[in-house]
Each structure stands twice: as C-alpha cells, then as structure tokens.
Amino acid sequence: MDFALFSPSALFAGSDDSSSEEERSETHENIVERKHQFPEMELLIREFSFHQLNANLLWPGTFAFAEWLVQHRQWIEGRRVLELGSGTGALAIFLRKSFQLDIMTSDYDDAEIEENIAHNCRVNGVAPILPHIRHSWGDVFPVSNPDWDLIIASDILLYVKQYANLIKSLSFLLNSYKPKASDAVSLLRNKHNDSCVLTRPAFLMSWRRRIGKEEESLFFTGCEEAGLEVDHLGCRVYCIKQRT
Predict the structure, then answer these.
(1) What start-end ranges are recorded for coiled-coil regions in this protein (predicted)?
(2) What is the β-pairing status of strands 132-134 and 41-48?
(3) Quick check: bond before 201 cis, omega within 30?
C-alpha cells in the first residue's frame, strides 16, 4: 500500500475548493471540522489534517462533481449507487440529502475512515447513517453479487501503482451486475428526456487532480485493456462501462 506523505490541499495552491475559512478544532489536534459549501447546501465535515491512507480532506474535484451531478440529476435519480474512495463521505452525504439517493460509501478497509464517515452523517442529519463497505481495491469484494447500477468517484487516481487494483475491483462491479426488468423501462423513459443516457451499470468519475497526461492515460488504457469502454462526458467527467 502506498501512503501519502503530504496534505492533498498542498496540490491545489490558489485553487477555490468551495470551503469556508470557518473551522472548529476538535480535542484531537489531528482533527478539524470545516464548513463546506455544496450546491444550495452547507455541510459540516470532520477532516483529518493527515491520514496515512489519504482519506483525510475534501478534494476540489468533489465540489465540481457535485455541481455536475446536480446539472445531470436525471442520470442519477432512481439509481442504486456505490461511491468508491468516499474519504470523508461528504459527496455521498450531499447526494443523500439533496436527492434522497440510495447510496452506499466505500473506502479502504480501515475502521477510522468508516467511523469518520458515520460521524459526518450524524452531524449533518443523515439518519440512519449511510451503509459503508470497507474494501481495499484488488482484494476480494465483500459482496459476491453486487447490484449497484451506478458507481461514482471523484479524484481517486492518486497512486499509479493502485490502478491495476482499482480496475480489478471496478471490472468486478460492472461485470457482476445482473440486469433487471426495470432497467429497460427506465432506459426507455430516460431516452425521451435526454439525448445521452447512462447504461446500467456504469461508472461515473470526476478527475481534476493535476498530474501528467501520461500517468492519467495509464488508467484509461488499463480500463480499455480490461474490456471496458471509456467516454469523456466533458468537464473532466468520465463514464466507464462494459464494452458493447
């Protein structure tokens, strides 16, 4: 496992991450609660000043992805969603509160991450707290028959060495999904409302972190080599699905 030896915020000097300056320190000096502005909503999110698995702070891509999802809400409403690399859980909490979305969080097999997401659910009035899956990419997925028809993630391409593991887990989730009769009905209905319709299942990913195009392309090339299809939807949002 590769650990981050820096704060993610250091990668975005001068960028507007939509968070306010208001902070409330916890008794533990490694923890801080910050108010973050999402579309038409403010969330209080507890973050770690450092976490060895890098699930500590909100990344700028989270806010951009939230805005994109609001603009394309017809693509996510009514879906059963799994978020990979949930970190603090902020995006999932926003989607639950905004759309009452059926969403589950997931991140490394780490108790501290899971507890922090649960805390952020409680302080933002999400009850019951969002269900969570502890899963390190590449390991056997703890759910043998996944039925999420939409998987989402933002800014998760941090470690090139983890790309193969991420693709392995992603391929399992997409290829193991069993189509339901309701999928065809929903697809037909959406076609009348949108010229571009997401298949079921699909993976939506927002990627805004500044890395070289060569490193970035390794992930997309790896997906294609694994039999997946990659489409750039604009605004640095990508759709990855089973190749037809």
Answers:
(1) none
(2) unpaired
(3) yes
Longest CA–CA span in the chain (Å) reads 53
Q: What are phi and psi of 160, to 5 degrees?
A: -60, -35
Question: One digit per residue, pLDDT tens: the chain, 244 residues?
Answer: 433 333 333 333 334 444 443 444 444 458 889 999 999 999 999 998 766 656 677 888 899 999 999 999 999 999 999 999 999 999 999 999 999 999 999 999 989 899 999 999 999 999 999 999 999 999 999 999 999 999 999 999 988 999 999 999 999 999 999 988 777 545 545 554 554 568 899 999 998 866 677 888 999 999 999 999 999 999 999 999 999 8
Q: Write down the pTM of the prediction.
A: 0.84
Token pair 């969570």 is found at 132
